Every structure is written in C-alpha cells, then in structure tokens.
C-alpha cells in the first residue's frame, strides 16, 4: 500500500523537482581504446587490437574545430581525454550549474563501422563498458544515466542489443546516429520501435560526424564542418516528419523520441507547418488521427543545445511562449565539447515561466527519474 505524503513533504518534493537541473546530453569516453578491449567480443577483439592489419578507424571526418572539438579545461588532471574521468566530469558539471542528473551518450567508440556486425560489436562493448564504469562503480552519487548504443541500420542487431540490456536500471534510452538508408518512420524499423516501446526506452536521435553517407544532407554532401553543423536540424526534422506521418506513434502507443543536439528554434515552426498540411489533406493520412503537434507534444522532446542565439534574443522567447507546449524542451550542455551550453547562459535565453521546466522538470518526467534529495 502506498502511503500518501503529508502536504508539507509533498510540497518539498515538488520544490526539489522544480529546482533540479538535468543535463540530457553528456559525452563520456574511455581513457583509451584499450579500456574497451575486455568488452569486445571475438573475432572483433583480435581484429581491433592484435593484428598488424588493425583497421584505420573512421575518425577521418570533415574539418572540425580546434582541439578535436572538446573543451581544453575538461581534460582530467590525472590524464586522459576530456570526458574520460567520471569524478572530474561530475565536479565540472555540478560547478557549471548544480546538475542533479546527466544523461550519458557515448559517441567515439560507437561510431558507424564499415559493416553492421563490427558496428554492433562495438556498440555491445561500449554499452558493457558504460554499465561497468559510469553507471555502477563510478556513478557519482547516482548522478549518471546511460544511453544504449545500437547499430540502427541493421534492425535485427539493434533489437538484439535492446533485448540484451532490457531492464538494466542505468539505461534510460536507445541512442542512434541518424540513419541514412531511409527515415526512421519507415516500416523497416518497426521491430526497433516495438522493442523500444516494450521496454519503455525512448529513441534518442543524435548527430554523428563520420565519413561517407553518414554526412549526407537532404541536398548532398557538405564541404565544411560549419555546413554540417548548421544542417543537423534538417536531418532531425526529416526523421521527425517521417515518424509522425507514417503513423509510427499511432502504431506504437508507448513509443517516445528525443531529438538531441539539433537546436530548438526550428521545432515549433515545423509543427505549425505539419499541422497545416494535416488539416488540409488529412484524408490522405488515415493512419494519422490527430494533429501532428498534439502527437509530438505527447511523445517527443527536443534538447536545447546548440541553443540558437538570435540577434534579438526575444525572438526565441516569443516563439517558445507562443507554442504553448510547456513540456517540449529539455536542457542539454553537450559537455565536454567545445560548444558546451552552460546552464546560466541557457537560463538567460528562456522565458521565466518555462525555466524550471526546461532546466530539469521536463527531463525528470520524461525519463521517470527519482526526485533528487535535498542537497
């Protein structure tokens, strides 16, 4: 039997929920690739570590920012790359803005490979490493939650990874790079949608810089990093439109999705456009029984980084308030990358009535995180 909280205790719990800051995009990395060795299954362990033909991995990308795209001050005092020391990362995150929870999204070790079996093996190794370190023995006062990496372009392998980790308390979502075969609403991904729904894990779409078709934009290949970085929202929008108009959310009532590191200023105008199209041509979409904006408000969240900083900051504030969807956005920093958005800077761009929701309450609700204890 559940015991009701006394009114004073309920009020205190609500206040803690309102004050909590949740960072929904933090990138941990191993101290070195060798740290993954024990987690990598054969034959890929030998292929990666023991043969003279060890492959040149796919770190050859389009031009990046200086220092490999990471903050210089995020390098741990004990050595290793930025984002490799759980304790130091926690110190920096809490110093930035009293962050109560950080959602971890590994990138480097789980980048796309030249074949799905090798990519799935690296995803399994990355997930195992994360589970044993940041999510268990190195979890800083239960601060960290993790993302399951999957080889999304091979749904069979992606589903196997979800099923392997289903029920693990540390993983709160399924993370993928934007697939370039077809948009995510295509029925080829239905088995992934079903598995994620069954286990209560949102799909997390996060951009990746890797060579080949992974850099493809809706109009071709970019030349410069600035092009790719500016166009991330276009790829995210393509997947969102596909999920909505293919009726994916209608077929899977428990499916949720979070669009990460693609900004937010574009989201509400896109919803208006989708609603207008649905209103005029709804007969063409019998699988879509509700306005797109209603579905998105219920099932989809967007993380704030990189938060657009328009010439008139008030433009963004007006757009957020006019949308009237208080739960749509969640704070993210992208730590330890060079373009980290610190909490104080983001707060300065948000309308007062939405600050508590965007900085923490929305994420606590979306991920079902426990309310942080006082202090």
UniProtKB/TrEMBL annotation:
SUPFAM superfamilies on file: Metallo-dependent hydrolases
- Example of a GO MF term: hydrolase activity
Superkingdom per UniProt: Bacteria
Q: Which InterPro entries does the record cross-reference, listed alphabetically?
A: ACMSD (IPR032465), Amidohydro-rel (IPR006680), Metal_Hydrolase (IPR032466)
For the Amidohydrolase-related domain, which residue ranges apply? Answer: 22-369
Q: Name one GO biological process term.
A: secondary metabolic process
Instruction: Indicate yes or no for the key word Signal.
Output: no
Q: Which UniProt keywords apply?
A: Hydrolase, Lyase
Composition-biased stretches, type Polar residues, lie in 57-67
Q: Per UniProt, what is one Pfam family of this protein?
A: Amidohydro_2
GO CC list: cytoplasm
- UniProt-annotated stretches for the region Disordered: 48-85
> Which PANTHER family does this entry report, sorted A to Z?
2-AMINO-3-CARBOXYLMUCONATE-6-SEMIALDEHYDE DECARBOXYLASE, ISO-OROTATE DECARBOXYLASE (EUROFUNG)
Please report the name of this protein according to its UniProt entry. Putative TIM-barrel fold metal-dependent hydrolase
- The organism encoding this protein is Amycolatopsis thermoflava
């Amino acid at each position: 039997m559940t015991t009701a909280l006394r009114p004073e205790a309920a009020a205190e719990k609500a206040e803690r929920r309102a004050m909590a800051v949740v960072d929904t995009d933090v990138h941990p990395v191993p101290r070195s690739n060798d740290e993954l060795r024990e987690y990598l299954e054969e034959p890929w362990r030998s292929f990666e570590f023991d043969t003279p033909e060890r492959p040149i991995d796919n770190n050859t990308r389009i031009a990046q920012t200086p220092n490999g795209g990471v903050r210089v001050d995020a390098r741990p005092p004990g050595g290793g790359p930025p984002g490799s020391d759980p304790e130091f990362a926690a110190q920096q995150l809490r110093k930035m803005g009293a962050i109560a929870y950080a959602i971890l999204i590994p990138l480097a070790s789980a980048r796309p490979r030249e074949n799905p079996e090798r990519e799935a093996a690296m995803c399994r190794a990355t997930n195992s490493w994360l589970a044993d370190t940041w999510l268990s023995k190195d979890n800083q006062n239960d601060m960290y939650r993790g993302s399951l990496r999957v080889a999304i372009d091979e749904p069979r392998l992606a589903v196997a990874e979800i099923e392997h980790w289903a029920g693990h308390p540390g993983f709160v979502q399924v993370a993928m790079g934007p697939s370039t075969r077809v948009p995510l609403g295509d029925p080829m991904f239905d088995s992934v949608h079903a598995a994620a729904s069954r286990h209560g894990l949102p799909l997390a779409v996060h951009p990746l810089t890797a060579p080949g078709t992974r850099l493809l934009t809706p109009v071709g290949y970019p030349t410069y990093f600035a092009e790719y970085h500016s166009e991330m929202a276009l790829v995210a929008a393509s997947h969102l439109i596909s999920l909505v108009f293919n009726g994916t959310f209608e077929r899977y009532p428990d499916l949720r999705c979070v669009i990460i590191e693609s900004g937010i200023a574009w989201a509400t105008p896109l919803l208006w456009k989708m609603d207008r199209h649905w209103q005029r041509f709804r007969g063409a979409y019998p699988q879509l029984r509700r306005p797109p904006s209603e579905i998105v408000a219920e099932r989809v969240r967007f993380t704030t980084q990189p938060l657009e900083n328009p010439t008139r900051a008030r433009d963004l504030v007006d757009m957020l308030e006019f949308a009237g969807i208080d739960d749509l956005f969640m704070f993210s920093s992208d730590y330890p990358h060079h373009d980290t958005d610190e909490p104080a800077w983001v707060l300065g761009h948000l309308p007062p009535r939405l600050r508590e929701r965007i900085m923490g309450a929305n994420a606590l609700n979306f991920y079902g995180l426990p309310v942080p204890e006082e202090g």
